[in-house]
Amino acid sequence: MPPALLALILALPATAAPASQDAVMESLQAELQRSFKALSGADQRPPLYYLSYQAVETRSRSLSAVLGSLIHDSTDGRRTLDADARVGSRRLDNTHELKGAESGGQPDASTASEVPLDDDALALRQAAWALTDRAVKEAQGRYTKVEADKAVTAGEADGSDDFTLGRPHRYSEPPPPPPADLSAWRGALRRLSSAAASYPFVVSSQVTLNSESRRSWFADSEGSALSQSGTSVRLDLSLTGRTSDGMALDRSRSWEARAAEGLPTEAEVGTALTRLAAELDSLLKAPDAEPYHGPAVFRSTAAAVFFHEILGHRLEGHRQKLESEGQTFAKKLGEPVTAPFLDVYDDPALKTLAGFPLNGHYDFDDEGRPGQRAQLVKGGLLAGFLMSRAPIAAAPASNGHGRRSSGNRATGRMSNLVVTASKTVPEPELRRLFLAELKRQKLAWGLWFEDVEGGNTTTSRDGPQAFTVVPKLVYKVYADGRPDEAVRGVNIVGTPLASFTKITAAASDVGVFNGVCGAESGWVPVSASAPTLLLSELEVEKQDKDAERPPLLPPPHHDAAEAR
Amino acid sequence: MTPAWLLALALPAAAAEPSWVRADPVMTAALAELARSKDRLAVGESRPYYIAYRLLDQRRVIVEAQFGALKASTEERKRYAGADVRVGSAAFDNTDYVSADGGGHAPFTIEAPYEDGAPGVRHALWWLTDSAFKSAVQRYSQKDAYRRSKEEEDDLPDLTPAPVSALDLAEPVAPLPAADAEALARRVSAMFRRSKDLQGCRVGVFMFDNLARFLDTEGRRSRRDASDYEVVLDAWTQADDGSPLAEQRRFPARRPSDIPSAERLESEAREMAASLTARRVAPSLDAPYIGPVLFEGQAAGEFFNQLLARGLAAPREMWLEDEGLLEAYRPGRLARRLGLRVMSPLLSAYDDPAASEFEGTALAGRTLIDDEGVPAVRVGLVEKGVLKDLYVGRAAVEGRAGSNGHSRSALENLPSPRAANLFVAADPALPRAALKAELLRRAQEAGLSWAVLVRRLGEEDARRDGSLLAPPVAAFRVNLDGSEEALEGALFDAVTMRTLRDVAAASAERRVYNHYQRGPYGQQGDDVHATIVHPDVLVSEMDLVPDEREPDRLPRLKSPLAAGLAR
Q1: Which of A20, A164, A323, A505 is 20 to 30 Å apart from A215, CA to CA?
Q2: What predicted TM-score, i.e. pTM, was given to this entire model?
Q3: What is the chain B residue with the closest CA to A67?
Q4: Could you tell me the residue range of the domain that residue A440 belongs to?
Q5: B529 is in which domain, residue-wise?
């Protein structure tokens, strides 16, 4: 089937299904229409040209256990409402970047408040009205500043519009079931947390289970009406120890699923716990790392985080336009950015990959645009950007990646970032290539990054275009075939463009990292996936460590003196 | 209740723990860790000379509603632990000192498992004590270095001796279901739908079922109910000139049975809405006023809270490396005025922490034992205007012998002296009805054509520009014929502690003001239940000035409520 036809069929249910009305949607639409009609008239200075509401309801249950006892048990319910009020015109509106002395850049905050959870029309409309009034006043005030700023500052390199208008979408999903009942897990959490604390080198440990049910409503002055639903459960297990020289080290593992039935069994978690404890034990005994420059391997999930931090964030559309940004890739469309055998895309439509559920799935983004696959890198060449409704010279339209958490203005963000390789080798072969590279560079050993926690990256113009990725489990691999050894206290450092040209081989596996990602537009759920990758060069530095001594007394339940 | 501590005081230090302690797995776990820490924690020569643990079991329900609809509902179970670890000696330890970077001694806190039985509580206390001890050693060395660099410092001890007692004051109360809180919040907030003038409203129902435990290395043990319930009503709008108008009514309670009825709360909501409607069109003060002011009801309670109760707290004066912090750590304004006349000779005040009710109203400030494990005792504070005593904790204060059991705080703060049940009375006193006539007589005598009556006063947080008194929320202009008109936009000016001495008359009838008392240094969140039983008071002369803040713009569009939509 031709790809174009497939895309059309996939899009059909989203555009053809009539939005089934509900009290929240009806209230939001009624207040939106009343406000827009009154505030978009020529008598308003300046008038509203676009208004949207997004309500998000979250109901959650959470349970945590430590040392065999529950430490946390909560239920929560919230509904937030964000209003995006735009005055002026799509060419120039109140969201435009301010560059002058009084600037403050582009506004990161959107106008938001908590609104009633009950589907009560008057209470919801009263809350939406108060929010709209505040949003419009703020928009009009800021637009005045934008006009003055334009008058006294130099023109921008990218003179594209501030907003793209679009056709309306109507889409409705049934309400989600309530958050999964976690009661059946209480015993398992107690037992697992007790097992976690049974290791004498573990100074703290926790097992946490969260279930969440989420529903969102979006309505705008273009006529869109979208309601989406979802559920998720997440199990987290973490163990922490401290070396005698004061370094805190931890091992953790998470499992995500759409429903409790998708979680691993207690026995499977127990097996993972045993493995994590063994890894932590080896890390605590491991030598502190020395600065290193040489070949390295990133295990699939570590490689995925590497791409998320270093490439993904720099391909967010607004970063190519804002004068305050480094614009690393703004003018590199069609140019090589990584190895020619690698493709990178971001696809919010994906729900699973290689059997793993993906955290970043959605049908419509937070600006009411359908989530589309964005091809970012093709054959190693830069192919596109992650676009919200703020256009840039190189990409005039949204591809459904406008995302935010409540209280923040949406920008282009990742959803499910996928790195694929057109040329792969089995993992043993990748290891053989790694050893060969070590020998070629006349190095006795290299570093194998088995697990990373996450990291951060600087993209603004006033900072170095650098990144840090925090490895959690790293092995020293010897060229002469000696057994691998754990090392601790490693930080990966470098500059983005250089790092990606050093990828020389990919394995045939796929690893998925699910998490939440924070940036100017808030925290959003994401995933990243990649194969295991070999780099010919990588630079690491020693990690900062605090100077705190380990506890002076042993944990009470491991105190031999007291037991006597 | 029988004063159980009289008996408990007789317990020899080495005696076995009381049966209720031995039967409480949390107390026994904490005692084991307390003993291990006291015996074995050491860094070089430094060892803890005193350790206290506070543990708080909490079931927390937080519910909010607006205009009849539920806005938020959370329910959680928690157990918190706090450790106060001291090194040095009672004469000179790591406390009562703030370093140049603003750091001072504070308890360390941690969340511990809320389930009993497993090693979780001990493990949490082990971690906590270790961190607190290391910090105490560092803080002690900083303070010691500071002492060596200064010629003059006070030689008051940091920890004075106090009675040792073991008290079980737990009073199990069946917790209210969260659904009851949700129903109450919906019902009361629905009353605000009846007022077209309101822009917003909020009804919060907070139910914290708390069990507090205390133990220290000197043998103090206590377990008590520390539950905290509150209903808060908020409503707001704008005056026709755009000035923001807001009203808040808070109803703190210690037991579910003390929460006001739904009918009473609905009536309060109705009153608030009516008040805001009247205030929307009320004239604003347009010129300074100097003359008599009558404080009635809640306003009189807040008057005594902000001027008297805060002033009576005498925490140990801090050693401050940075003198820029002097204002932040200023002790109670009356702390150095013992024996002097601090109030009108008409007024006397005492604190009776054990009192449970006044004329049928429950007193939220009831305190039998404080957060330093010391039984709270009655304190005669002011006699015919003369200051006789202060609220004192275990940190020594010039002129006072030792703790009177009034040191309290939120878990994450060091306990500090506060009011529990502060009783203020006047002698001679006037019937309440005669106070208004006296107000007008004084106004006429001063050549004024009207006087000011304040029925609601903003709480401490509303104070502006360093004023000792928050602005009025509900003020009235009382004409010489006795008629009243709402008066907006008035702020107190030039309020000093002299205002307490300028009380010219007070009512014989007294009211109960249950509220939250903030600590002496005003930290957010460091609020404890307190009560003031007080008369209405007439101050002979006060200054009021117009509020010069620019009003906000009015909404562009009528609210759905005002427009009669979706009713």
Answers
A1: A164
A2: 0.89
A3: B120
A4: 292-542
A5: 289-315+329-546
